[in-house]
């Protein structure tokens, strides 16, 4: 089964954990490290013959347009991660509309193609932020991957959301992040901090369990997770461990994952699901 490989293309200072320490007004003064860390990923993907979906932050695209063109030229899919990396809970419909209005034209120009996919910063599409769905639809987005069907994280998740793709709006398909059910509990399958903190063997076992349930796994990561030399911020102990642990091992672990499993971008799979459901609805 082909799994879905995604990268949230943002830099080390864009992380929501740093919002109180590094506001948007100081981002331009921060060291831009995302070009080198993303190129490490591009080299790995090229070596292993893998294509991915890159959810690109508009702020980064504006400052490193050559990097985004490089990603697109290499055959990877460009999707939208917003412009300012504001979590949806800090926005309202008008501010989200303005954020997308700034990001989407820029990404379309750099990708040389329509932008159909979106992922909210920090998986912040929750029950409280469903107002965002019609805004996403108005910008021509066809699919979203912002819902984490998991109740164990303090800042995101919808504990009882469906695990399979489902229609979240009239014209928007949701590709929920991967979790598996173990002993009546939902466990995140792979990606991000989970991938860095779990033993590799656990991540691989969870992917296989996802397959047994008939679902591909959706993997996600950020370029800063492959950059062990990035600046360190004074975080509380738990957040510091969660954010910085195993940064030096992530690239090797990811290469092992690319060898062991089959991977591809999200958009083609989303299109297949949308078309199959449309045919089924027409037949009914």
Automatic annotation (TrEMBL):
EC number(s) on file: 3.5.1.-
Keywords: Hydrolase
The NodB homology domain, residue ranges: 12-284
Pfam family, one: DUF3473
Name listed for the protein in its UniProt record: Peptidoglycan deacetylase
PROSITE patterns: NODB
Species in which this protein is naturally found: Enhygromyxa salina
Organism phylogeny: Bacteria, Pseudomonadati, Myxococcota, Polyangia, Nannocystales
InterPro entries: DUF3473 (IPR022560), Glyco_hydro/deAcase_b/a-brl (IPR011330), NODB_dom (IPR002509), PuuE_HpPgdA-like (IPR045235), XrtA_polysacc_deacetyl (IPR014344)
GO biological process, one term: carbohydrate metabolic process
GO MF annotation, one: hydrolase activity, acting on carbon-nitrogen (but not peptide) bonds
């Amino acid at each position: 089964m082909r799994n879905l490989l995604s990268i949230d293309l943002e830099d080390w200072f864009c992380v929501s954990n740093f919002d109180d320490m590094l506001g948007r007004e100081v981002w331009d003064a921060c060291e831009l490290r995302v070009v080198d860390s993303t190129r490490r990923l591009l080299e790995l993907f090229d070596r292993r013959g893998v294509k991915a979906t890159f959810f690109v932050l508009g702020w980064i695209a504006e400052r490193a347009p050559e990097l985004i063109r490089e990603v697109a030229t290499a055959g990877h899919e460009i999707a939208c991660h917003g412009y300012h990396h504001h979590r949806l809970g800090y926005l309202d419909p008008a501010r989200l509309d303005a954020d997308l209005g700034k990001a989407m034209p820029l990404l379309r120009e750099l990708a040389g193609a329509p932008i159909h996919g979106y992922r909210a910063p920090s998986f912040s599409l929750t029950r409280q932020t469903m107002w965002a769905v019609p805004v996403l639809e108005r910008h021509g987005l066809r699919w979203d991957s912002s819902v984490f069907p998991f109740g164990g994280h303090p800042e995101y998740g919808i504990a009882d959301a469906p695990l399979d793709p489902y229609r979240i709006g009239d014209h928007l398909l949701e590709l929920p992040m991967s979790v598996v059910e173990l002993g009546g509990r939902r466990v995140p399958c792979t990606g991000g901090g989970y991938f860095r903190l779990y033993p590799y063997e656990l991540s691989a076992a969870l992917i296989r369990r996802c397959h047994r349930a008939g679902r591909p796994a959706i993997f996600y990561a950020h370029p800063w997770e492959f950059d062990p030399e990035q600046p360190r911020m004074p975080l509380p102990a738990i957040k510091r461990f969660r954010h910085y642990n195993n940064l030096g091992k992530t690239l090797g672990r990811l290469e092992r994952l690319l060898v062991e499993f089959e991977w591809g971008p999200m958009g083609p799979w989303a299109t297949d699901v949308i078309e199959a459901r449309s045919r089924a609805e027409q037949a009914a």
